[in-house]
Amino acid sequence: MSFDWQPLLLTFRLAAITTAILLVIGIPLAWWIAHTRIRLKPVVETLVSMPLVLPPSVLGFYLLLAFSPQNAFGQWLEQWFHLRLVFSFEGLIIGSVIFSLPFMVHPVQAGFQNLPGSLLEASRTLGKPDIVTLFRVLLPNIKPALLSGAVLSFAHTVGEFGVILMIGGNIPGVTKVASIAIYDEVESLNYAAANFYAAVLFAVTFAILLTVYVVNKKLKAI
User: Fold this and answer.
1) What does the DSSP 8-state code read for residue 141?
2) Which of 67, 68, 154, 167 could form an S-S bond across to 19 if both were Cys, CB 3.0 to 4.6 Å?
3) Which band of pLDDT confidence, cut at 50, 70 and 90, is reported for residue 7?
């Protein structure tokens, strides 16, 4: 029996792009949250953590409304950037970045907060700019947190269902990722195909998490 690999390839492509974007925006955001003392910090922390407790269908519903060409934001994107995010791969990326944001920010934020303040003070005393201190002093000392954030974000994106179904639907080659394919095959009573997709996702996520635990153990032992 032959299986369609496209949903799996689309899933891993979505997870890789989402993780790369989250590394770019999650590290500075985690740094800012770890060190800022402004009164609005609890509000920002709450917004970042909302995807942890919010039902995915709720987040997907509001993203669907926001991205729809029938509403102001969707019209603005289409008129100025010729970009339609509803039922598109680009829309899945934005939804995945928002939904997986806490899985990147929280481990990295904890890594920054656990660093001794003397590291930052010593670098500043030597006249190093903060950006140099971040990349050459702080980030190398939170490698386990960075690895955890990246892997959790990747694995969480691989398992997304509700947000993707709401804003992406089920378009083969565009938005039909593996989790949607499993649901689709079960609905069609094609359990062999559903088992194939589920088994691959199970094996990949198990291997990813096992790698994180092994590598983190080695990094902490150094």
Assistant:
1) G
2) 154
3) very high
127 DSSP assignment: T
Beta carbons within 8 Å of 153's beta carbon, 6+ residues apart: 15, 18, 19, 22, 26, 100, 103, 104
Q: Which amino acid is at 149?
A: G
As a whole number of angstroms, the distance between CA 111 and CA 39 comes to 22
Give me the DSSP letters along 69-92.
TTSHHHHHHHHHH----TTSHHHH
* Amino acid in position 49: S
pLDDT one-digit tens code per residue, 57-93: 899 999 999 988 888 888 888 888 888 888 999 999 9
- Does 141 score more than 90 pLDDT? no
pLDDT computed for residue 211 by the predictor = 85
Greatest alpha-carbon span in the chain: 66
Q: How many CB atoms lie within 10 A of CB 80?
A: 8
Percent of the chain at pLDDT > 70 equals 98
CATH for 5-220 is 1.10.3720.10
Over its C-alpha atoms, the chain yields an Rg (Å, rounded) of 20
Distance, in Å, from the CA atom of 14 to the CA atom of 19, rounded to the nearest integer, reads 9
- Domain residue ranges of the chain, discontinuous segments joined by +: 5-220
